[in-house]
Task: structure prediction
Amino acid sequence: MANIKVEPLTEFKTADLDDLCQATEDAIRDGIGFNWVAPPSKDVMESFWRGVLVVPERILFGGRLDGTLAASIQIFKPGPTKQTTAFCAGISNHFVAPWARGHGLAKALLQAAESEARALGFSVLTLHVRSTQEAALKLYHESGYTRWGIMPYYEMVGDAMIAGHYFYKNIKPIMKIT
Result:
């Protein structure tokens, strides 16, 4: 049985950045996206992941399969000028490398992000995903997320327009809606 572990990442240890870049490349080639149609060069990808660690509004969690960093999820917090939406955080770049799927990493990452967001005082999480990501759509539905809309013009991949699904989840009680 495979060993999975989810942890917040505040720095990259020895092979972690290489592992995460490879996992990301594999996921992009499999159609996950990251707003890329094809994987960028390694230096661009390394800069992307290093950049995530220095953005104060981002919290990065990594998912390990048998010790190898193979997945991630990010919480993005609202900036200081977002006073009216300060109760709401977002989820982005939630993925598992194709070779690491089927072990529960996606669900474990989502649960860790929800727990952290709740601990930080957020009441609602939002996310969006391509309509082609059937496993992700299923996971979000099964995890209690409510789809509130579909945008038919979400992403252009090659000559195909792909729809996007938008979700939210109340992760702790909030005030009455008026």
